[in-house]
Each structure stands twice: as C-alpha cells, then as structure tokens.
Amino acid sequence: MDVRANKEYLDFLTRNLDEFTKIFGEFMKMHVENTGFGAMAVGIAPAVFPKEGADKERIRVLTDELNRLAGTLMDLSQVTSVRMVIQGAGSLDPFINWQRMLEPKPLLDASVVQGCCLQAAGRLEGLKAKAEALSSPSIEPSLLHPLVWAAAQRLWNDGHLRQAVAAAAEAVSGQMKQLTGRNDAGDTSLWQQAFSSASPQKGKPRLRWPGESEDQDVKTMQTGLLSFAPGVNMVIRNPATHVAEDFTEQDALERLATLSVLAKLVDKCQVLSGEADGSLVAETDVTAFGNQRPKISGEDK
C-alpha cells in the first residue's frame, strides 16, 4: 500500500513533525544563527552557535530529542518530496540531516530546516485530504453480527486471527444446531439438512426463508441458502479449524464478514418441524440471544 494514501501513517508523521518543529524552535531560542551583520566565516563556520550562557545540558537534551524525532520522520522527505539539492552533495533529507547546520562547512542552516518543516506540514495536509477523498469503505468488526464478534473478539484482539475465525464459525454452526435441536451429524451435513427442500421429519426440522413457499424470490433464497450455508462451513470453518496456516488481517476480516452474513440470514429463517405421523408443526424460533419470532403455520409445500 502506498503510504501516501495511508491516513493513519500520515497522521503519525504529522504528529511527530509538529513535535519536531516545536522542539527545534526551543533549540533555536538557545542558539544564534551565523548570518547577517557580524557573521563569522560564512560557509566555513557552523551555521548556528550556542548563545553565550546557554544551558549546555538543556541543549544536549533537546539535541537528543530532535535526533529521536528525526528518526521517526525517516520517510517524511520521500512522502512529501521535500528535499534539498546541495551542489556537490546531491539530494539531502533536511529532517534526518538537521544537525548538518552545526558542522563546519554546513550544508543546511536553521531557516532552511524551518522552511522545510512548514512545507512538509502543508504537503501532509494535502495528502491527508486526498487520502480521505479516495478512501474506500471499511468493515468495522464490532458491527458484525453480535454472535460472530462475541465469539471472535478476544482471540482477534490477542492477534490469533485464524482461531478467531474458527470460534466465530463454531458459534454460527451452534446457532443452527440450537434452532434445529440437532447435533447428530457433521456440521456440513446438518447445514444441508437444515435447508433441504424435503419436508421436515420427526427430529429433523428445516430452516425456511420467510414468505410464501411458491414465491419465486422465496424459492431463490431457499435454494441459495442450501448452497451458501454448507459452502461457508466447508471453505471457512473447516480450514480455520483444521489448517495451521495463519490468516492475514484482511483475509480474517473477510471471513468474519461472510459468517456475519450467514448468521443474519439464519436469524430471519423460520423453523418448521415434522411429527411422527407426517404432520407439520410451526415452532417458536429462539435465536442465540433469546429473541422470539413467531412462525408461520401451515404445510410445507
């Protein structure tokens, strides 16, 4: 990813540049520039001298802090394209090399460093505005289906991304098992049976998309769920549970989002049970969070 489009990193550079500029200003209050009337050996002597009576220990502390901050700004010159072209020395990063103004035959002076700081700050503002304008939508994990995020959150926050996905997948399968009252087969098989177009049997309830069973949209959703739910189990739950290879954050987030979609679809389904004599019974659906939804009674067509 281009760091110039990464607002978080641009904010980091902005904060540290602001701190660098502030400390540099304090540093210069304890120094005098070797310019103007009374300047000594300009171009040969350092561009900056400590003021008479300046606190040497404080200068040392400020110098150390400027060097630390300069290290955090190692990409600033490249990101903002703020560099100095010095004859005989080539292109120079004015932030990392700020101390060159303290050396004999200085390649920088204080006004140049300050000017570069101002220009870099302005360019960072422009880059952040551009990054915001071009930013794409993102998924907020905490807004996923509560069942999914509740199962994944602790593992996710600890950096165990694959295990977080596995836990969320188990929770969604558990949601289906709770609704159907079944745990007598493998999860893929149970998903297939739950959304099967066959009539429910004693001990084998079905999950049905709400609406008239002859409605084409309802048929499409039912057929889609019959493929989607077992597919999610096979391509998301099984690898997360049985394959040791870890996930990237993006991969894991996409899988959690898919599980969230499935959990929300299951929430909308109705549970239809069959009796031993072949009659159908409408149930009261209880989700993983105890929310009751009335069932539509009638025969399974």
Please outline what is shown here.
The chain has helices at residues 7-29, 56-72, 76-80, 110-134, 146-157, 161-180, 187-194, 216-242, 249-268; strands spanning 31-33, 48-50, 84-86, 90-92, 206-208, 270-274, 280-282, 285-286, 292-293. It contains 9 helices and 9 strands.
Q: What is the number of independent domains?
A: 2
Summarize the amount of helix as a percent range: 40-55%
Q: Name the average pLDDT.
A: 89
What is the strand tally? 9
The end-to-end distance, rounded to whole angstroms, is 53 Å
Order of helices and strands: HEEHHEEHHHHEHHEEEE
DSSP strand content: 5-15%
Annotation field: number of helices = 9
Poorly predicted runs of 5 or more residues: 276-280, 284-301
The strand order across the widest sheet is 5-6-7
Give me some keywords for this one.
52% helix; 9 helices; 2 domains; rod-shaped; 301 residues; mainly alpha; 9% strand; 3-stranded antiparallel β-sheet; two-stranded antiparallel sheet
Secondary structure elements and pairings:
Blueprint: H1 7-29, E1 31-33, E2 48-50, H2 56-72, H3 76-80, E3 84-86, E4 90-92, H4 110-134, H5 146-157, H6 161-180, H7 187-194, E5 206-208, H8 216-242, H9 249-268, E6 270-274, E7 280-282, E8 285-286, E9 292-293
Antiparallel strand pairs: 1-2, 3-4, 5-6, 6-7, 8-9
Helix pairs in contact: 1-2, 1-4, 5-6, 5-9, 6-7, 6-8, 6-9, 7-8, 8-9
Explain how this protein is built.
There is one protein chain. With 301 residues, the protein is mainly alpha-helical. The protein has helices at 7-29, 56-72, 76-80, 110-134, 146-157, 161-180, 187-194, 216-242, 249-268, and strands spanning 31-33, 48-50, 84-86, 90-92, 206-208, 270-274, 280-282, 285-286, 292-293. It has two domains: 3-134, no CATH class; 141-293, no CATH class. 52% of the residues lie in helices and 9% in strands. The protein has a three-stranded antiparallel β-sheet with strand order 5-6-7. Strands 1-2 form a two-stranded antiparallel sheet. Strands 3-4 form a two-stranded antiparallel ribbon. A hairpin with a 3-residue loop joins strand 3 (84-86) and strand 4. The longest helix has 27 residues, at 216-242. The two termini are 53 Å apart.
